[in-house]
Write a structure and sequence with these properties.
Helix content is 40%, strand content 7%. It is α/β, with parallel strands linked by helices. The chain has one domain (58-217): 3-Layer(aba) Sandwich (Rossmann fold), CATH 3.40.50.970. The protein is globular.
Length: 219
Amino acid sequence: MDIQNNNETALQEKLSFENFQNEVLKDYRIICESRETSLLGRKEVLTGKAKFGIFGDGKEVAQVAAAKFFMPGDFRAGYYRTRLLCLPQALLILIAFSQLYADPDVNNDPFSAGRQMNAHFSTKIVDESGEWLDIANIKNVSSDMAPTASQMLRALGLAFSSKIFRNVPELHEYKNLSTNGNEVCFCTIGDASTSEGHFWENHKCCRCATGTIGCFCMG
C-alpha cells in the first residue's frame, strides 16, 4: 500500500503545473536556440563565410517531442533536418557551427571531427580497440548518408536486428548490445523522399522483417 501511495505521489508530482511549466519553457528555449542557430548559419553561408549549410528550421517541435521518448539503447536513423534528436542541448550551438566550418577538433564535433557533411551525425559503437561499447545503455545514432531515403533501409536493419536479439535465446547474454530486443529505432524522412523507390521497397520488407520503428515525416 505504501508503494502504491508513493507511486501516486510521484505521478502527481510529475504532472504538477510547476513541473509542466518548467518543461514547456525548457522545450521552448531549445526550439528558439535551434531556430536562431539555423538562421545565423544560413546567413553565414549566404555571405560566403561558410561554403555549405543544411538546417532544420521549421521542424523543431516534432523533434523535441520525439526526443522525450528516445531512450538509452534506442537508435536514430534519420536525415539532415533532424539534429535535435542528436545534439545535446548544452552543445547544440557549438556542434552546429563546428560542423558548418568542418572543425577537425573532436571535442567540438564529437560525431565526425569535421569529416562528415554538416548536419550528418553518427555515434561510436566500438572503442579504440575495436571492442563493442555498451550501446544498450547509450543513445545511438546510425551514420547518416546523403542519399535521400537511405535512412529507411538502415532503420529496417536496426529494427530487424532487435527482433533477432529478442527471438534468439543465445543472444540474450549480450546485455551490452541489446535489452532483449526492446529497442526502438526512430526514423525521420522528408516528404519528397517518400517518392523514392527504396522507401516503398522498405515498407514491403517491413511486413516480413518487422521490428519496432518509429517513423516521422518531417515535411
